[in-house]
Specification:
47 strands; globular; 736 residues; 3 helices; five-stranded mixed β-sheet; Maltoporin, Chain A
Length: 736
C-alpha cells in the first residue's frame, strides 16, 4: 500500500495510542478467581458460531429466552458468533444480508429498509415502525441510527418469519438479536484490534474485562474509526459524502450475589459522515445531470450527516434455588440525526434540504422464566414502550427556505405474553405462545410556509391492538434430527396519516415446516424449511394527495411462499458453510400518485384548491393504477457460501485463507413497477481474507468486494445509493 500520508500516519498513531493507553491503565487491576456468571436471557454471552461444527460444540441461540442448540429450535435462524462476524466480513448491520439467506437490508437515507422474506419496512416515514424488530442486548431499536460498526460482539441471531410471541409487535418479518460481550466475574481479559486499509481506512477498538471484586466486574469497550470518501465530486462543492469519523464507547457493570445479579450499561455513539452519497435515478427529473463514472458525483452544495445516540439500560435478575428466574430490563434511548442534502444530486438545480430527527424511547420488560428441567417449560412476560419523535425538515431553493415540515409524534406500546412447551413423549413436543399488544399514537405539528403559515396540519390520533402467537409440533426421532411444523401470526401497528387520516395494522399468517439434521459423525449440520405467508394491509409510503407530503396507506394484500436451506460442514482442516433462500411473492393491485411524475420543487406542496392556488400542485394527472407485482425489497433468490482451510505452518502458527461469496437477487423498491426507476438489480460480492494466527495474536489481510462491483444499494426520493467499492487492508488483533 506504500508509504502512508502524514494525516493517515497521525490518525493511526492516535488510534493506536488510545488503544495502548486504555490497555495499560486497565491492566493495572489484578485478576481474581476464574469464575463466570451464567448468561442472562435473551443475550448470547457465548453464542457459538455459525462456523464449522466440531464434536463438542453446538451452535447456541437465545431467542426464546433460553440457551438452546440451534438444531433444537423450531425457528428458521442464522446464528453468527463474534468471530464468525469477522470471518464473513460483517462489519455493521447492513452487512448481515451477505451472511443470512432471505434477508434484505437496503439503504434508504435516514433509515435502512430491513426486510425478511419481503416483510419488514418499506417506508421512511416516522409513523411506520419496524417489521423486522431489531434488538441490541435485548432492547428494541427504532429504525434510525443503525449504521454504527460492530465491536466487542458476542454474536448475532437472525430469526426469519413472524416472532409475535416473544419479540412482540413489529416482528411480522422476523427479528435481529445483536448481543455484545458482557462482563465476566473473576477474570481479567479482553481484546484489541488495529486496522488500516485503502481510502485511509483506520480502525481501532479495544475491550477490557475487569474483575473488581468477587461480586463485581466491569467491561469497557470502545471504537475509533475514520475513512475517506468513496466518491469523487467533480462539481463546485467538492463534497465528500460517505466520509467517516466514528467514536463509540460502551461501559457495562455486573454485580452478582447469590441468585441475584444486576447488569448496567451505558453506550455512546458519535458518527459523522460527509452526508449521504447518491445520484439521480435514470429517467427522472434531474437525470440529465447524472454522472456516468462509478462512484463519481456532481454536487453544488455540501451534504453532511451527524448521528448521535445514548443507550442506557439496567437488567435485574433473580434466580431461585428451583431454577425459576425473574428478569427485569429497563432502557432509555436518545437518538439524534442532523442532515443536510443536495436534494437534486446534481449541478442542474439548487434544491436542498435540512433535517433534524430526534427519537427518545423508554422501555420496560418483565420476564418470568421456568427452570430448564422437566416436561413443562414456560416464559411469561409484560412489556411497555414509549417513543417521542421530533422531526424538523426544511426545503430550500437557491439557499432560500421554501417549506417547513415539523411533525411531532408520541407513541405507546404495551403487551402481555406467554409461551409454554410440554414434552408429550420422549420424541414429541407441543409448544404454544400467545401475546396481546396494544398501540396508541398522537401527532401534532404542521407543514408550513417560511412565515409559519400552516398549509397542512400534521395532527392525528390512532390506536389498535392485536393478538399474535404460535403453535408448534416438534418431533425428534433421535438426537440428530428435529422435524417441526407450526402456524404463527404476526402484527405491526398502524398509525396516523396527517392531516387527520390513519392507516391500519399489518398482519401476517405464517405456516412453516422444517427439518434440522446433524450427520456424518457431527461433521455436517443442515437446516431446511418451507413457508407460506398470507400478508394483509401492506403499509407503503406514498404521496398524500391532500397534503402533498409523504404519507402512509394500506395499499394491498400479498401471498409469500418459498423455501430456505443452510449448512455447516468440516472435515479435517477444511470448513464450509452456506445458505440459500427462494421467495415467491405477489402483491395485489392498487391506485396511487406516481411520485416520479411530481417535480421535486413541488415536493410537500398540498393539492391545489380554490384557496391555495399560489403554493400548490395538482396531483390528479399523476394518479396511476398498478396491477400489482412482487413484494417490495423481496429478492427471489439470495444465497451465500464460504470456505476456509487451516494450514499448520509450524511453531504453533496457522495460516487460514477464507473466501465468501454472496448473491442478492433483483428487488423492487417502489410499487409503480417500472424497471427504469423502481428495480434494484441483482448484485454479488466476493470477499476474502488470509489470517495468520499464533496463540492469541492474529495478523489478517482482507479484501471486500474484490471484483469492484458497482451496484445500486437503495433509494431515497428520486435518488439512488450505491454499495462500497473494493476495500483491502491489514488487521492486527490480540486477545488476552
Amino acid at each position: 500500500m506504500g508509504k502512508l500520508p502524514f494525516a493517515a500516519t497521525y490518525r493511526l498513531r492516535h488510534h493506536a495510542a488510545c488503544l495502548l493507553l486504555a490497555g495499560t491503565i486497565l491492566a493495572s487491576n489484578p485478576a481474581l478467581a476464574d469464575t463466570q456468571t451464567a448468561p442472562s436471557a435473551p443475550t448470547a454471552d457465548a453464542a457459538a458460531p455459525d462456523k464449522a461444527p466440531d464434536d463438542s460444540k453446538d451452535i447456541v441461540v437465545t431467542a426464546q429466552r433460553r440457551r438452546e442448540s440451534v438444531q433444537n429450535v423450531a425457528i428458521a435462524v442464522t446464528a453468527l458468533s463474534g468471530d464468525a462476524l469477522g470471518d464473513k466480513a460483517v462489519v455493521r448491520q447492513s452487512d448481515l444480508q451477505n451472511a443470512s439467506p432471505g434477508l434484505s437490508i437496503v439503504k434508504a437515507g435516514l433509515t435502512d429498509s430491513i426486510n425478511i422474506r419481503g416483510i419488514g419496512l418499506a417506508s421512511g416515514s416516522p409513523q411506520v415502525t419496524n417489521g423486522v424488530s431489531t434488538y441490541l442486548d435485548g432492547v428494541f431499536q427504532p429504525p434510525i441510527v443503525s449504521g454504527a460498526q460492530f465491536y466487542d460482539m458476542a454474536g448475532v441471531e437472525v430469526l426469519r418469519g413472524p416472532q409475535g410471541t416473544l419479540s412482540g409487535a413489529n416482528s411480522t418479518g422476523g427479528a435481529l438479536y445483536m448481543n455484545t460481550n458482557k462482563p465476566v466475574l473473576g477474570k481479567f481479559g479482553g481484546s484489541g484490534t488495529v486496522a488500516y486499509g485503502n481510502f485511509q481506512n483506520l480502525n481501532a477498538n479495544v475491550a477490557i474485562n475487569l474483575p473488581v471484586t468477587d461480586t463485581l466486574a466491569i467491561r469497557v469497550a470502545g471504537l475509533a474509526a475514520s475513512r475517506d470518501s468513496y466518491y469523487t465530486d467533480i462539481g463546485p462543492a467538492h463534497a465528500t459524502p460517505d466520509r467517516l469519523s466514528e467514536h463509540d464507547a460502551r461501559v457495562q457493570a455486573l454485580w452478582k450475589s447469590g441468585g441475584f445479579s444486576a447488569l448496567g450499561k451505558v453506550e455512546l455513539i458519535d458518527r459523522q459522515t460527509g452526508g449521504y452519497a447518491y445520484r439521480p435515478i435514470a429517467t427522472t427529473q434531474f437525470s440529465a445531470g447524472r454522472t456516468t463514472t462509478p462512484w463519481t458525483i456532481d454536487y453544488n452544495s455540501n451534504p453532511s450527516n451527524f448521528e448521535r445516540a445514548t443507550i442506557t439500560q439496567l437488567e435485574l435478575k433473580y434466580q431461585f434455588d428451583s431454577g425459576l428466574t425473574v428478569l427485569s430490563r429497563t432502557a432509555y434511548l436518545n437518538k439524534r440525526i442532523n442532515n443536510l442534502y443536495d436534494t437534486d444530486g446534481t449541478e442542474l438545480a439548487t434544491l436542498g434540504s435540512g433535517q433534524f430527527v430526534r427519537e427518545r424511547q423508554y422501555s420496560q420488560e418483565i420476564n418470568i422464566i421456568s427452570p430448564d428441567t422437566g416436561r413443562f417449560k414456560y416464559v411469561l412476560g409484560a412489556y411497555g414502550q414509549r417513543n417521542k419523535i421530533n422531526v424538523r425538515n426544511y426545503n430550500t431553493t437557491a439557499g432560500a427556505t421554501t417549506l417547513l415540515i415539523e411533525p411531532d409524534t408520541n407513541k405507546a406500546l404495551v403487551g402481555v405474553f406467554g409461551q409454554a412447551s410440554y414434552q408429550l413423549t420422549d420424541k414429541l413436543q407441543i409448544e404454544a405462545g400467545l401475546r396481546y399488544s396494544h398501540f396508541h399514537v398522537d401527532g401534532t405539528g404542521a407543514v408550513m410556509l417560511p412565515n409559519r403559515t400552516v398549509l397542512v396540519p400534521q395532527t392525528g390520533t390512532e390506536g389498535d391492538g392485536r393478538a399474535t402467537g404460535k403453535i408448534t409440533l416438534n418431533y425428534k426421532p433421535d438426537s440428530n434430527n428435529l422435524i417441526y411444523v407450526f402456524a404463527a401470526r404476526g402484527y405491526k401497528n398502524g398509525g396516523i396519516n396527517p392531516p387527520g387520516g390513519t392507516f391500519n395494522p399489518e398482519t401476517v399468517m405464517d405456516y412453516e415446516a422444517g427439518w434440522k439434521s446433524t450427520f456424518l459423525d457431527r461433521h455436517v449440520r443442515t437446516q431446511l424449511g418451507v413457508f407460506y405467508n398470507s400478508y394483509k394491509n401492506f403499509q407503503e409510503d406514498i404521496i398524500n394527495q391532500s397534503s402533498g407530503a409523504g404519507g402512509v396507506t394500506n395499499l394491498a394484500n400479498a401471498t409469500i411462499k418459498g423455501f430456505e436451506a443452510s449448512f455447516q460442514a468440516h472435515t479435517g482442516a477444511l470448513s464450509l458453510d452456506g445458505g440459500m433462500s427462494f421467495v415467491d411473492s405477489s402483491l395485489s393491485g392498487f391506485t396511487l400518485i406516481n411520485k416520479w411524475a411530481v417535480p421535486s420543487q413541488f415536493s410537500g406542496f398540498p393539492q391545489c384548491t380554490g384557496s391555495n392556488a399560489a403554493r400548490c400542485f395538482d396531483y390528479t394527472p399523476t394518479l396511476t393504477t398498478s396491477s400489482g407485482g412482487p413484494n417490495l425489497y423481496s429478492p427471489k433468490w439470495t444465497w451465500n457460501v464460504g470456505a476456509q482451510y487451516k494450514i499448520a505452518a509450524g511453531n504453533d502458527v496457522t495460516v487460514t485463507p477464507r473466501i465468501n461469496y454472496a448473491y442478492v437477487g433483483s428487488q423492487w423498491a417502489y410499487v409503480t413497477y417500472v424497471a427504469a426507476t423502481d428495480l434494484l438489480n441483482a448484485h454479488s460480492l466476493l470477499n476474502a481474507s488470509v489470517a495468520i494466527d499464533k496463540g492469541d495474536l492474529r495478523l489478517e489481510f482482507y479484501g471486500t468486494n474484490i471484483t469492484n462491483n458497482f451496484y445500486v444499494s437503495g433509494q431515497s426520493g428520486k435518488n439512488e445509493f450505491y454499495g462500497a467499492p473494493r476495500e483491502y487492508g491489514v488487521r492486527f488483533s490480540v486477545k488476552f
